[in-house]
Amino acid sequence: MSTDLENPASTPTPPRTLDRKVAVVTGASSGIGRATAIELARRGAAVVVSARRADKIDALADSLATEGHDVLSVPADVVQASDIEHLIEATVERFGRVDIAFNNAGTEGVFAPFEEQTDETFDLVFGPNVRGVFNAMRFAAKAMLAQGGGVIINNASMGGVIGFENAALYVATKHAVLGLTKTAALEWFPRGVRVNAICPGIIDTPLQDRIWPSAEAKDRFAAESVAGRAGTAEEIARAVAFLASDDAAFVSGHGLLADGGYSVA
Prior knowledge:
Sc_DH/Rdtase_CS, SDR_fam, oxidoreductase, Glucose 1-dehydrogenase
């Protein structure tokens, strides 16, 4: 599937609401992370793209640099605290500060009946989805609190507010992400750091492709939803850009549902 980076004329030029900001995006190699890195850069931010797959983020960084954006790629595994500490240190060394952290990296784990889940599948999904977000939040916050402010946005899911059959572990991790978001917002908002989460629904991304047994099953579910379709990564990226901007200056501790109305049906 082509993206706005390959076809920039396909969408209007976004407003430069993030001029002179520095943003870190984890899980930037594909899907929502990639789309958000592009959106934040086009809104004026210097962007640090990070993921485990160095070749993917290097290619993204090269493409953004060709467009004239200030960008740095730093490979990291969010489960490893030392990797995230290095990511934030590299950002500060290059750009002097961290204004925005979009903690997007995560995994779907294994979708299976509750009683078939194992210790291994528990660790597989809780590692990146909870420990990874925890690592990314705490190291970004240390830099932001030291500099006097910043914005943290975690990628949760509509699974953070509702449940799904065969998705107990994934849903539990996303509820945990919202718990981390709300608690950190209480502690850090008075000190200048806003913390929110984005809660996407069915979005046309590689992660969703892995969850569904077939493309037809995914498309059929999306067509029967309130919106009548799956969302796009670019639509989620624009919502993240809003939360990152000063337009959301009075928003903290919030999980913004971007699910096409699914959770209220």
